[in-house]
Specification:
5 helices; mainly alpha; binds MU-OXO-diiron; elongated; single chain
Length: 171
């Protein structure tokens, strides 16, 4: 059974993952509008992953005797200066998600909620992978030069080849 504090914090995380999904959707659409089809495909796929993160939490809350609340999601940024800024803002957002997950884990520990603590370990590992992925992408953008059109072409091709991780499937 969830304590009220844990239930509220898990519902806050549902909202954050829902916002992340829309953030990626917006970033994907911006790439689409700039002819970066590979980046767009990668980001649309990531929007789906984030929705899965949200639903996994949603299901858990109800399974654990709480009440999952459909989130009130604010609109994400719609435009980006360039691809580098887009991925910098994505990484920044992922760092905020990691912080939020870490705070949730601390809370569960304090509330002696071992079940939720155990459930959240999947998110701890997932955040590690996501941070690594977006740092790698930013390194490549910086290597190729963010304003060079040939660099953009290669980045777009590179991202078209990245598949969603198998570890991110719903469980
Ligand atoms: Fe589910 Fe990328 O945070």
């Amino acid at each position: 059974m969830l304590t009220k504090k844990v239930e509220t914090a898990l519902n806050k995380q549902v909202e954050m993952e829902g916002y992340a999904s829309n953030y990626y959707l917006s970033a994907a659409s911006w790439c689409d509008s700039k002819g970066l089809a590979g980046c767009a495909g990668f980001l649309y796929g990531h929007a789906d992953e984030e929705r899965m993160h949200m639903m996994k939490l949603f299901t858990y809350i109800n399974d654990a005797g709480g009440h999952a609340l459909a989130p009130n999601i604010k609109q994400p940024p719609l435009k980006f200066k360039n691809l580098k800024e887009l991925f910098e803002s994505v990484l920044e957002h992922e760092l905020a998600v990691t912080k939020s997950i870490n705070n949730l884990v601390d809370l569960c520990m304090g509330e002696k909620d071992h079940s939720s603590y155990n459930f959240l370990q999947w998110y701890v590992a997932e955040q590690h992978e996501e941070e690594k992925l977006f740092r790698t992408i930013l390194d490549k953008i910086n290597l190729l030069g963010p304003d060079d059109s040939r660099g953009l072409y290669w980045i777009d091709r590179e991202l078209a080849g990245i598949q969603p991780e198998s570890g991110s499937e719903p469980k």
